[in-house]
From TrEMBL:
Lineage, broadest ranks: Bacteria, Pseudomonadati, Pseudomonadota, Alphaproteobacteria, Rhodobacterales
A family per Pfam: oligo_HPY
Protein name: Oligopeptide/dipeptide ABC transporter, ATP-binding protein, C-terminal domain-containing protein
Signal peptide: none
Protein family membership: Belongs to the ABC transporter superfamily.
This protein's record includes keyword Transport: yes
Primary localisation category: membrane
UniProt topology in membrane: Peripheral membrane protein
One GO biological process term: peptide transport
Keywords: ATP-binding, Cell membrane, Membrane, Nucleotide-binding, Transport
Origin: domain of life: Bacteria
Length: 332
């Protein structure tokens, strides 16, 4: 189902289903997820732990391993399906067209090699630049992510950088091959608050400068509300709401989105209460019939236990899967 306004999106994910076949049952981690991202857009993928955010990211990167499998759907990059692409094509896509930034910078960095060597490697693989030009490009990239004395720092090993500086290095590496899409999975969660906002600003600015798009995966709605053009909210492997950031934050239509917003400290202050969504995420191996959120939902009625809601157009740019969505002005 096409539910965004984007014409010729850079990435279109359609009805993606990624399951893990475990001894204790099939985990339908992603179960019919669709979204689109246009050139230069930032899309926030949010929701509580276990919603399927990371599995969406890994699916797009072609990095789902046993016992996981993409069971259905399409991941179209410029119209070309990555689900059916071979490993060679996927390897080419990773690094050149899509790069990734993870929560722990050491996941992406090799502790045994200097930062310069790791940056040079990317350019050797993906460009035809000679050694001098590659060195120059590495210095410039490191400077552009706010690391001074870049030529010197290229000779240092990852452990010689602080956590925040290491994440800057990872961002520099992610940008080097001039990817069209960056998938950032909780990129600042491990960093302290001041550094978090510096890194987020840096990512936003770098993405704008280089004309790249980004999927920003986070449980933190406050972070995406500052960074993203669009937001997609996942719950139990399904999209429960999506739309433009401003519409979704100011007048959400799904009670789950409302709950997430009320859990942001600042917003809660405005509402004069700090609400946590009651209850916990159900076991996705054993989901109840009907709406997955109904046991935690203040608006649930009999229908919610009988029939699964489907994504439907709501007010403004919002689409939500809810039988009793909030209208603008309603707060609970
Ligand atoms: N290798 C695996 N084997 C079995 N189940 C898995 C595997 N990887 C992920 N899952 C399951 O898939 C579901 C979605 O996980 P995912 O990590 O995508 O959630 P998330 O929204 O990113 O949460 P978090 O913020 O905790 O990372 C979870 O129930 C998780 O247990």
């Amino acid at each position: 189902m096409m539910t965004n306004d984007t014409q010729n999106p850079l990435l279109a994910v359609r009805d993606l289903r990624t399951y893990f076949h475990t001894f204790s049952g099939t985990v339908k981690a992603v179960n019919g997820v669709s979204f689109e991202i246009g050139e230069g857009e930032v899309m926030g993928l949010v929701g509580e732990s276990g919603g399927g955010k990371s599995v969406v990211g890994f699916s797009v990167l072609g990095l789902i391993d046993e016992p996981g499998k993409i069971e259905g759907g399409e991941i179209l990059l410029d119209g070309q399906d990555l689900v059916t692409a071979g490993e060679d094509r996927l390897r080419e896509v990773r690094g050149r067209e899509i790069s990734m930034v993870f929560q722990d910078p050491m996941t992406s960095l090799n502790p045994l090699h200097t930062v310069g060597r790791q940056m040079d490697e990317v350019l050797r693989l993906h460009t035809k630049l000679d050694a001098d030009a590659r060195h120059q490009a590495c210095v410039e990239m490191l400077e552009s992510v706010g690391i001074s004395q870049a030529a010197e720092r290229l000779k240092a090993f990852p452990h010689q950088f602080s956590g925040g500086m290491r994440q800057r290095v990872v961002i520099a590496i992610a940008l080097l091959a001039r990817p069209r899409l960056i998938i950032a999975d909780e990129p600042t969660t491990a960093l302290d608050v001041t550094i978090q906002s510096q890194i987020l600003k840096l990512m936003r600015q770098q993405i704008a400068d280089k004309g790249a798009s980004m999927i920003l995966i986070t449980h933190d709605l406050a972070v995406v509300s500052e960074m993203a053009d669009h937001i997609t909210v996942l719950y139990c492997g399904n999209v429960v709401e999506r739309g433009k950031t401003r519409d979704l934050i100011e007048t959400p239509s799904h009670p789950y989105t409302r709950g997430l917003i009320d859990s942001i400290p600042d917003t809660a202050h405005r509402h004069d209460r700090l609400m946590q969504i009651p209850g916990s995420v159900p076991d996705i191996r054993n989901l109840p019939k009907g709406c997955n959120f109904r046991d935690r939902c203040p608006r649930a009625q009999a229908l919610c236990a009988q029939q699964e809601p489907v994504l439907t157009k709501q007010h403004a740019t919002l689409w939500a899967a809810c039988h009793y969505p909030l209208k603008p002005g309603e707060t609970a």
